[in-house]
């Protein structure tokens, strides 16, 4: 049974509130009660909706027309309860947020050790579409959360032909979301006409023996995957599936194994926010993945998933409002995996100092 809780949309024209700290920055074993979660989502939406920093991605023509005012937040816990605020019904293309899910599906098939051997897991510290990330790595692997590694991951998708491989990706991501996802044909056509850099990356990887099927086909499949339509609620469900050991908390389906989830979240922590991944872990303390359409999905292992959508991006390609909201909610909901308080002393362990 799915429980839903909705918060109001954008508060309209208001003055930017003072950036007060979140109320409870200590990690807990579970989410707070429904009223608290819903209230905190409302607070986060009202607090960060007035932020006007960042710019909508314009290097993909179909994304350039997105309204910068769109802003949606959603939390889904591992029990399947859904909490919403803002523009949670607006559809957008998944873009790079698809990367961890495709990696998980491939790792489920070939095994997590083979996935690490063939794809690599270290953060390059470079931009998401960097060619240098390949050249500077001695074994020519690239992290699956950046374009080079994601295209290589796509080349490992099983199937007898392109149609079968696309069916594997589409059906797999749909299982993560809990329903069949549609393809945005306009975005797919727009990206296909402008993805020269990704095609070049695929050819370079192929030259180094790090493409495992036809590079042209793999790049096309990668582009098509990025063009799947989702909502911020879909993304929160997908995130919660990774948080719950691979079980979709809404449908109850085991999409991937717990070990695959654990390894996927580890890779997310290294490079999910590209060259800002270290700053993200420092501030938010959770594995996450961003995309240039303005989405960020954040995973709180054992607790649930948080998704945000707001098109204006910072210089690294991450949603400005999404980053602010995720940091606030991570603290306020007690999600940060690095936060703790000292254990009370026992009879055998006196407090010193």
TrEMBL record:
EC id: 3.5.1.2
Single Gene Ontology MF annotation: glutaminase activity
Top-level EC class as recorded in UniProt: hydrolase
Keyword Protein transport: no
Residues that bind substrate: 96, 147, 191, 198, 222, 274, 292
Matching NCBIfam families: Gln_ase, PRK12356.1
SUPFAM superfamilies: beta-lactamase/transpeptidase-like
Ranges for region Disordered: 1-29
Plastid is among the record's keywords: no
Record field: catalytic activity: L-glutamine + H2O = L-glutamate + NH4(+)
Gene3D superfamilies: DD-peptidase/beta-lactamase superfamily
Subunit organization: Homotetramer.
Start-end of Low complexity biased regions: 1-17
Pfam families (alphabetical): Glutaminase
InterPro entries membership: Beta-lactam/transpept-like, Glutaminase
Name listed for the protein in its UniProt record: Glutaminase
Keywords: Acetylation, Hydrolase
GO biological process, one term: glutamate biosynthetic process
Family under the similarity heading: Belongs to the glutaminase family.
Domain of life: Bacteria
